[in-house]
């Protein structure tokens, strides 16, 4: 019991400390905005399908938003809760397959694993997906698998590459596998109630391609580099040694768990067209379980030394994630998304505070570049239903002024513009007054103007 309390406290600190440190990311803004629309009107229940996204994460977020806390923090707390579910799932799955000692070690590693830590602190679907896949593996068949498998598919259809492997855990239970399949299929197909169900397949074509070996080897190298950056060489080496030990002693369970790492990894490398490191997150729990199994078979001295070496690299990584994430040893693909590019919402908290401090005697329209993503959704989630401030996504109008912006001035409203320096052209600079600009670590800038 004491160990469980310590684990929960350690998890809570690492997942919730400085939770607003990373600026809002494009997908976070979109998901939270969708959840708000659902909260205001249940007719928007399937709005994520209009972009080909399955809606379970947003459905779970809806009741939490009704507490009226900061919407970004609320979304990230949901991911943290999902991360706690992952850690619990790792414990029970490992205990079911092996022994308590291995399960405790796996939990200890999961608490400080940087890949899990990073995504448990972001309002994205990947942490929830990982938790549901682990619990689906725990049940492995029957009603439990059916429910958790369906839930995983309702988070991301990519869960299928893991769910199809689960019958291997209990090959002879084909009747219960059939039950699980029927439950999963039935629940998932409730999405057909929406006219936008077809968009799941259509949008998948933007991210997937037909199986091809043309760039397979180079893609595998890239994926391997991503995993190495998060896991570190010590863990990779011990994982490989554990596989050798398992092969020597013919430990079939380790071989089966390895399928949940190798096959989804290779499949994604084969069909992925637009891929990001977070797509590999669900394989991490299975790696940790195998590594823990290998570690407990070492002498006590070697076990302590190995865990110490693993954690030494991870704790430094974790420190930067909690204190100064830009300095964390993230790969370029991660830093580009979350810190360097237009998708990173630097400056939005400051703009929000500026707008809230304006006198309320005159309506305000805030035009933003784009119409979907960090702008305008990163501001919309804070001003939805606001009595005097309207957020207006205008896309990229050819003349710099959209019809809505012109109308705001005609209606004698104060007009502001939020745009990225390198993405929005406004030829009539004499009509702009720079309120402030907000640099990103990579050199790009977000500009905040008042328009006259």
Automatic annotation (TrEMBL):
It is found in: Cell membrane. GO terms for biological process: lipopolysaccharide biosynthetic process. Its main location: membrane. Keywords: Cell membrane, Glycosyltransferase, Membrane, Transferase, Transmembrane, Transmembrane helix. One of its GO terms (cellular component) is plasma membrane. It is a multi-pass membrane protein. The keyword Cell membrane applies. One of its GO terms (molecular function) is pentosyltransferase activity. The chain crosses the membrane at residues 73-93, 128-155, 176-200, 220-247, 254-272, 278-296, 303-322. The keyword Protein biosynthesis does not apply. This is Glycosyltransferase RgtA/B/C/D-like domain-containing protein. The lineage of its organism: Bacteria, Candidatus Beckwithiibacteriota.
């Amino acid at each position: 019991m004491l160990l469980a309390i310590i684990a929960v406290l350690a998890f809570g600190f690492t997942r919730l400390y400085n939770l607003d440190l990373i600026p809002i990311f494009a997908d976070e803004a979109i998901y939270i905005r969708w959840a708000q629309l659902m909260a205001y009107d249940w007719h928007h229940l399937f709005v994520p399908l209009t972009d080909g996204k399955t809606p379970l994460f947003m459905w779970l977020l809806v009741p939490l938003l009704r507490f009226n806390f900061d919407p970004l923090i609320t979304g990230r707390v949901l991911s943290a809760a999902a991360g706690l579910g992952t850690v619990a799932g790792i414990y029970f799955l490992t205990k079911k397959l092996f022994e308590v000692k291995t399960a405790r070690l796996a939990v200890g590693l999961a608490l400080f694993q940087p890949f899990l830590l990073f995504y448990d602190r972001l309002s994205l679907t990947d942490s929830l997906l990982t938790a549901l896949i682990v619990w689906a593996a725990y049940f492995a068949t029957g009603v439990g698998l059916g429910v958790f498998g369906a839930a995983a598919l309702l988070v991301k259809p990519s869960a299928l590459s893991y769910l199809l492997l689960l019958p291997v855990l209990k090959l002879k239970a084909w009747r219960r596998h059939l039950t699980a399949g029927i439950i999963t299929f039935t629940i998932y197909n409730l999405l057909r109630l929406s006219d936008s169900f077809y968009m799941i397949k259509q949008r998948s074509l933007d991210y997937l391609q037909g199986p091809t070996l043309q760039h397979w080897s180079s893609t595998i190298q890239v994926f391997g580099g991503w995993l190495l950056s998060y896991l570190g060489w010590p863990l990779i080496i011990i994982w490989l040694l554990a596989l050798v030990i398992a092969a020597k002693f013919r430990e079939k369970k380790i071989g089966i768990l390895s399928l949940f790492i190798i096959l989804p990894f290779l499949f994604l490398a084969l069909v992925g067209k637009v891929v990001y490191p977070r797509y590999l997150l669900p394989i991490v729990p299975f790696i940790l379980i195998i590594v823990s199994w290998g570690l407990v078979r070492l002498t006590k001295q070697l076990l302590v030394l190995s865990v110490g070496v693993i954690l030494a690299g991870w704790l430094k990584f974790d420190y930067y994630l909690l204190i100064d994430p830009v300095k964390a040893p993230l790969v370029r693909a991660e830093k580009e998304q979350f810190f360097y590019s237009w998708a990173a919402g630097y400056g939005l908290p400051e703009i929000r505070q500026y707008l809230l401090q304006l006198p309320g005697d005159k309506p305000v329209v805030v035009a933003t570049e784009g119409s979907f993503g960090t702008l305008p959704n990163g501001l919309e989630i804070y001003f939805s239903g606001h009595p005097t401030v309207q957020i207006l996504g205008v896309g990229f109008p050819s003349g710099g002024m959209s019809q809505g912006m012109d109308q705001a001035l005609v209606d004698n409203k104060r007009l502001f513009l939020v745009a990225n320096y390198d993405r929005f052209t406004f030829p009539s600079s004499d009509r702009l007054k720079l309120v402030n600009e907000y640099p990103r670590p990579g050199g790009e800038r977000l500009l905040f103007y008042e328009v006259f």
